[in-house]
Amino acid sequence: MRLLAALSAGALVYLRVGMLVGIRPVIGADRERGRPMRSRHAAEWLGQTGADVTVGQMLGLGSVVAGAGLVAMTALTGVASLGLLLGAGGFALPWVVLSRRRAQLLGRKREAWPDALRDLLTHLRSGVSVHGGLLLLASSGPDPLRSTFVRYQQLSAALERRTSLEVIRQELADPLSDRVIDVIGVAIDQGASVVIEVLEHLVESASDDLRLLADSETAQLETRLEARGAALLPFVVLALLCATSEDYRVFYRTPMGWLVVGVGGCFALVGLVAIARLGRVPMEGRIAATGGWQ
């Protein structure tokens, strides 16, 4: 029973962290091939958070938090299974924090695109080339995207311009950014006069999409908070009961108690994942770097 609870806790961590960084489990013959891909994906995900940390540092930090949570909960309640469960959650906590930071950073960059496109249109109408306009946005563009255009400035000094844009596209990892960069790439190839009207329409459609996305996320906020509370509250109550009642502590030290905690933790994770999937705002597919859809 204890082994089952430990395996359940491990599965909670693996699935939770994998869900955060967008990595699917790899099985069978794809396992060896999937390892470098997972590492590369995780490193790219961490880069999008704006935090100067590596995957190894995150794993180390998660281990420290997990150990502290395990010891603290076990000491408070006298029930090792609850300590193990909190330790599993503690391991995922740094990834959860960075996931929120990443979502906020990418969201601010997404919301800044209409202003950036208006600035680019102003430069194009004054006779500046598309490439020159992008370089000017490194200093005159909206604050959330200035670092992106500084990055483009650095890349374009060493790489071909379309290649530089593709690198930026992958770092932004956003469908709206894909659409904008695709149009900018066409402008670089064919000239500004060809796409000025397209960019004007893109400003309008991007603004409309962002308003709709903000309204949808606001409408779902209360439901998401209630779902998370419903998943976590039973374990908070159980911890309080075990901390104050010897009878509860005795039961949850037994194999059956370990099983109850392990299965309950799995059900809670499944419920959180289901709510996250069902409540996700539908978004257009991303344009891959090769020009296809992913």
Summary keywords:
single chain; 294 residues; mainly alpha; 83% helix; elongated; disordered N terminus; disordered C terminus
End-to-end separation: 42 Å
The ordered H/E elements are: HHHHHHHHHHH
Shape: elongated
Note poorly predicted spans.
2-9, 21-34, 289-294
Task: Determine the number of helices (DSSP H or I, runs of at least 4 residues).
Answer: 11
Cα gyration radius (Å): 24 Å
Give the structural class. Answer: mainly alpha
- Tell me the β content: under 5%
Question: How many strands, which pairing sense, and closed or not: the largest β-sheet?
Answer: none
DSSP summary, beta strand count: 0
The amount of helix comes to over 70%
Mean pLDDT score? 79
What features would you describe in this structure?
By secondary structure, the protein is mostly helical. 83% of the residues lie in helices and 0% in strands. It contains eleven helices and no strands. Helix 1 (2-21) packs parallel to helix 11 and helix 3 runs antiparallel to helix 4. The two termini are 42 Å apart. The model is unreliable at 2-9, 21-34 and 289-294 (pLDDT under 50).
